[in-house]
Design brief:
The chain has about 425 residues and is of the alpha/beta class. The protein contains twelve helices and 24 strands. A five-stranded mixed sheet has the order 16-17-15-2-24. It binds shikimate-3-phosphate.
Length: about 425
C-alpha cells in the first residue's frame, strides 16, 4: 500500500489523539499483577498496546472491554500468571518485550518471548545482563529475541543497578523484576528517561548528585486500581510540528499527557520560534495533562543533545522534518539510540529528507540538517515499516511542494491508528 499526501494550504481544528502508548502498556501489565479487577479508561486500539494484552492473555490474564469501552483486566497477583503454551509474541513492541521479560524472569515457570522481524533485530543484552545478575536464567540468540527464560525456582536476588544506557524500557524491566527479589532492588539512573513506571508503582525516588535513585522495596505488592490513559504526547508531536510548518494553521490538542520526562520537544520547538501554548494544566491520576494550541510560525535551526535527548527520543524523526523546513542549521547529537529503534531512524530520516531535496548529513550519533525554509519537493519515500518514520514523512508531505507518496504507511497503526484520516481531516488543500 502507499499513502499520498498533498501540500496543504492550512491545518485547522481539534485533533483526536490516540491514548499514550507507554502508559497503556504499563497500566495493563500492572493491572495483571494486581489482585482483583483493574479498570483502564481510554485504553488504545493501537497495535503495540494490543500486543501487550495478547501476551497477558497467553499468560492466563483476562482482559476485555466492558460495554462502556473501559478495559477490565483481571489481576492474578504477582505469582498467579499461568505458563504460556507457546512463545509469547510481542509483535513490533519493544516495550512489551522488555517489560514483560522483567516480569517473566521472576516466575516459577519458563517462557520464550518473540516478536516480528524488526523486534527480533533489536538489542536485548541490555535487559538480559541485569536480569542475569539478579539470578534469572535468560538466554538470547546472538543478543536478540527469541528470549528464553527458564524458571526462577528460588526468586531473584536484589541488585543495585546503574543503568549503562538511558532507557526507560531497561529501567522498567529491572524495576519489575525487582518485585520478585528477596530484598530491596535499587536502580541508579544518571540520565533520566520517562518516569511512568516509577510513578505508577509509586516508588521512592530521590536524586543524589544528579543521579536518580529508585527503590523497589522487598515485598512491594500492586493493588487493583483504576487507570486513565492520557492522550499521547508522542502522537501529538506530529501535529505540533505540522501546525508550525503549514501556513495559516491553528490546531488544538486536548487531554495530552504532559509528563516533563516526555515533553522536551515543546522546549526545543519554543527555542526554534514556535507559537505553542499550553493551557488547562492539571493532574490526572499520577500524570500531568493539559491542552495545547499550535499556530503557524517561522522556525530557526537549533542544537539538541545531552540530557534532553531521552525526553524527546521518539519525537526526533518529526523534529528532523521541522529542522529541514527551518532557517539555519540544526544539529542533533547524542541520539545514537535511534539506530536501534523499530528501524535505524537516523538513516531513515536522512535518506527520506534528502530524497525530498533537504540537506541532511547522517552522523554516528545524530543528524546535521541545513534548513532550507519551506522548499521540500514531493517524491516517493519509504516508511521502513516504522510508524514514526511513516508519520514524520506524512508531516513532510504536508509542506513539500506537489505530493509525497509514502510506501508501506499502514505501520502508523502501531501507535496511531487513524493517523492518515486525521491528517486529511484537519488539512485544507
Ligand atoms: C519507551 C521507552 C523508549 C521509547 C519507546 C517507549 C517506554 O525506549 O523510545 O518508544 O515506554 O518505556 P527506550 O527505553 O529503549 O529508550
Amino acid at each position: 500500500m502507499v499513502q499520498t499526501v498533498h501540500q496543504a494550504d492550512s491545518l485547522r481544528g481539534t485533533v483526536s489523539l490516540p491514548p499514550d502508548k507507554s502508559i497503556s502498556h504499563r497500566s495493563a501489565l500492572l493491572s495483571a499483577l494486581g489482585r482483583g479487577t483493574s479498570r483502564i479508561f481510554n485504553y488504545p486500539n493501537s497495535a503495540d498496546p494490543q500486543s501487550t494484552l495478547d501476551c497477558l492473555r497467553s499468560l492466563g490474564v483476562a482482559a476485555e472491554r466492558n460495554s462502556e469501552g473501559v478495559m477490565e483486566v483481571t489481576g492474578r497477583g504477582l505469582r498467579g500468571l499461568s505458563p504460556p503454551t507457546e512463545p509469547v509474541n510481542c509483535g513490533n513492541s519493544g516495550t512489551t518485550m522488555r517489560l514483560l521479560s522483567g516480569i517473566l524472569a521472576g516466575q516459577r515457570f519458563g517462557s520464550v518471548l518473540t516478536g516480528d522481524d524488526s523486534l527480533r533485530q533489536r538489542p536485548m543484552e541490555r535487559i538480559a545482563d541485569p536480569l542475569s545478575v539478579m539470578g534469572a536464567r535468560v538466554s538470547l540468540r546472538d543478543g536478540h529475541a527469541p528470549i528464553r527464560i527458564r524458571s526462577a525456582r528460588d526468586g531473584l536476588d536484589p541488585i543495585e543497578y546503574r543503568l549503562p544506557v538511558a532507557s526507560a524500557q531497561v529501567k522498567s524491566c529491572v524495576l519489575l523484576a525487582g518485585l520478585y527479589a528477596e530484598g530491596d532492588t535499587v536502580v541508579l539512573e544518571p540520565t533520566p528517561s520517562r518516569d511512568h513506571t516509577e510513578r505508577m508503582l509509586d516508588l521512592d525516588v530521590e536524586e543524589v548528585g544528579g543521579v536518580r535513585r529508585l527503590v523497589v522495596e522487598d515485598g512491594h505488592t500492586i493493588p487493583a486500581t483504576t487507570w486513565t490513559v492520557p492522550g499521547d504526547f508522542s502522537g501529538a508531536a506530529f501535529f505540533l510540528v505540522a501546525g508550525c510548518l503549514v501556513p495559516d494553521s491553528e490546531l488544538h490538542l486536548e487531554d495530552v499527557g504532559l509528563n516533563p520526562s516526555r515533553t522536551a520537544l515543546l522546549e526545543v520547538l519554543d527555542g526554534m520560534g514556535a507559537d505553542i501554548t499550553v493551557e488547562n494544566e492539571r493532574v490526572q491520576g499520577r500524570e500531568p495533562v493539559g491542552d495545547i494550541t499550535v499556530r503557524s510560525a517561522s522556525l530557526s535551526g537549533v542544537d539538541v543533545g545531552g540530557r534532553l535527548i531521552p525526553n524527546l527520543i521518539d519525537e526526533i524523526p518529526v523534529l528532523a522534518v521541522a529542522a529541514a523546513c527551518a532557517k539555519g542549521t540544526t544539529e542533533i547529537r547524542d541520539a545514537q539510540e535511534l539506530r536501534v529503534k523499530e528501524t535505524d531512524r537516523l538513516h531513515a530520516m536522512s535518506e527520506n529528507l534528502n530524497a525530498l531535496g533537504a540537506d541532511v548529513q547522517e552522523r554516528e550519533d545524530g543528524l546535521l540538517i541545513e534548513g532550507n525554509g519551506p522548499n521540500l519537493l514531493g517524491t516517493t519515500v519509504r516508511s521502513f515499516d516504522d510508524h514514526r518514520i511513516a508519520m514524520a514523512m506524512g508531516v513532510a508531505g504536508l509542506v513539500a511542494h506537489g505530493s509525497t507518496t509514502i510506501k508501506d504507511p499502514e505501520c502508523a497503526k502501531v501507535s496511531f491508528p487513524g493517523f492518515w484520516d486525521e491528517l486529511a481531516r484537519v488539512a485544507s488543500f
